[in-house]
Amino acid sequence: MSTEEIKGTNSRRTEDIDATCEEFCFNPIAVDYVQKRMLTEKESTLLTEIFKALSSKTRLHILHALSQRELCVCDLSLVLDLSVSAVSHQLRLLKAARLVKYRREGKNVYYSLDDDHVVSLFAYALEHVRHS
Amino acid sequence: MSTEEIKGTNSRRTEDIDATCEEFCFNPIAVDYVQKRMLTEKESTLLTEIFKALSSKTRLHILHALSQRELCVCDLSLVLDLSVSAVSHQLRLLKAARLVKYRREGKNVYYSLDDDHVVSLFAYALEHVRHS
């Protein structure tokens, strides 16, 4: 690698690590506008719960499976190669975060994504990682 | 509370806690369909990184602020009542998860949401908690 290439790499690294303002200077109109539209305490708590529930590979696999079709707990245990009780545990956490819902049919319980917001939220996240 | 009301409450609670199939029974077509469309290892890793980055109230406040308009690091420090260095630290984590991007203008660094996927993902999550 030439000296020039090394310099180039270093300068990009420095920029990435230290991307902050060089002197304190702010826009009072922008600050005021945003401060008047802050998340409430309840909203930020509920959002954190949702995103924590999504921060697990197993639960992401469950959501991805349910984004394709409604499945019963037994189907999900086969898809993920996990015990029914392990899947049920993860489903309870997803249900508590309002990400999935269920309906009973005979002796089976069928799960699906809670509503269209969850469908879209998951679809955009997946599109983002596929496009990045 | 009457005995009937107590029974009603208990039965709802049992249903919520134990919403699982009563006997093992699966749909092989559904299982096969979903198994052929599983998330890849890379996709589930990247999704987990995104959702972990979103599992913090401070970072959610930053994203919510940036969902309204582009802001420099100093603006964000005033909006959130945090030091510039604390805000920079959180922005680095959000940048690493590809949730925000920045541009330099003179001595200032302006941050915004990374792209339309992030805008939509955040908007749907917020709509979900507001609607729930």
Helicity range of chain A: 55-70%
Major pleated sheet of chain A: 3 strands, antiparallel
Mean pLDDT of chain A: 87
Low-confidence stretches of chain A: 1-15
Structural classification of chain A: mainly alpha
Number of strands of chain A: 3
Fourth-tier CATH superfamily name of the domain at 41-131 in chain A: Winged helix-like DNA-binding domain superfamily/Winged helix DNA-binding domain
Find the CATH topology of the domain at 41-131 in chain A: Arc Repressor Mutant, subunit A
Report how far the terminal alpha carbons of chain A are from each other: 27 Å
Please describe what this structure looks like.
Two copies of one chain form a homodimer. By secondary structure, the first copy, chain A, is mostly helical. Chain A has a domain at 41-131: Orthogonal Bundle (Arc Repressor Mutant, subunit A). Chain A is 64% helix and 11% strand. Chain A contains seven helices and three strands; from the N terminus they run ααααβααββα. Chain A has helices at 3-17, 28-35, 41-53, 57-68, 73-80, 84-96, 116-131, and strands at residues 71-72, 100-105, 108-113. Chain A has a three-stranded antiparallel sheet with strand order 1-3-2. In chain A, a hairpin with a 2-residue loop joins strand 2 (100-105) and strand 3 (108-113). In chain A, helix 5 crosses helix 6 (84-96). Chain A is elongated, with a radius of gyration of 22 Å. The two termini of chain A are 27 Å apart. The model of chain A is unreliable at 1-15 (pLDDT under 50). At the A-B interface, helix 2, helix 3, helix 4, strand 1 and helix 5 of A face helix 2, helix 3, helix 4, strand 1 and helix 5 of B.
